Amino acid sequence: MRGLIIRKALSTLIVGGVIATLLSSGTTVTASGSDVKTVPFEVSGELPIYPRALWKNGSSGTNVRKVEARLVQLKLLEKKYLDDDFGTMTRSAVKKFQKSQGIPGLGYVDQNTLDQLAKVTHVPTQAELYPPAPVVNGKKLDARCATGVALCIDKTTRKLRYVVDGVVKMQMDVRFGAVKTATREGSFTVGWKSRNHVSKLYDSKMPYAMFFSGGQAVHYSSDFAARGYNGASHGCVNVRDLAKIKVLFDEVQVGDKVIVYRS
């Protein structure tokens, strides 16, 4: 008797498993005793088929820069976003272009979008793709400062220059970290700003702070104003001109480039 009960239980489990498998594969199932019958179902409507993306959000490289340069020609994208990276602003510009041409606003570049873009723009010149670096006092700034908005910070000349589309708008003296607390070099962006910041680590005031690399920031330094280059920062970029950095703080936006280099 016990063996019969076990066999019936196993039979039920097997049939149930078959039914579950058939249901998951898209069939309708009816069961009578140990008989299992399948009835195929129909799918109504059509799934949309999207064209293949050549470049989309997250893409990068020279081809993305060429697309961005064409969008700049049409004034759909600001020069500061000419950066080889297909990001939010490039996506928005692509959608605007697609809308203007009466084609689906996909937000990415497919072959049709590229063809239409090529019809209404010219092949970008080398200067359009890679604008020449600004020249100050007969000396070129870092090439990364040539496009968009940048805090171009030269450790050699100890100058900070606020550059917009290759034009130097402001210039000021700066001081850097000591050997053991060196100011990092490279390409960064302004992560956040704090008008009346106070360092918890060093218990010192850092007004008009614009953070670009961890705890390192461009900010006003009363010590720099008083002692000049006799002192050093803990890694930040110190500015001693209070009037200028007040103006700079209001001009600079989160996301703007910060280029720290040696000329």
From TrEMBL:
The record's GO molecular-function terms, alphabetically, read: peptidoglycan L,D-transpeptidase activity; transferase activity
Residues at the catalytic site: 219 (proton donor/acceptor), 236 (nucleophile)
Name the pathway it acts in. Answer: Cell wall biogenesis; peptidoglycan biosynthesis
Q: Which Gene3D superfamilies match?
A: L,D-transpeptidase catalytic domain-like, PGBD-like superfamily/PGBD
Task: Please state every residue range assigned to the domain named L,D-TPase catalytic.
Answer: 149-261
- GO BP: any one term: cell wall organization
Protein name, please? Answer: Peptidoglycan hydrolase-like protein with peptidoglycan-binding domain
Q: Which organism is it from?
A: Kribbella pratensis
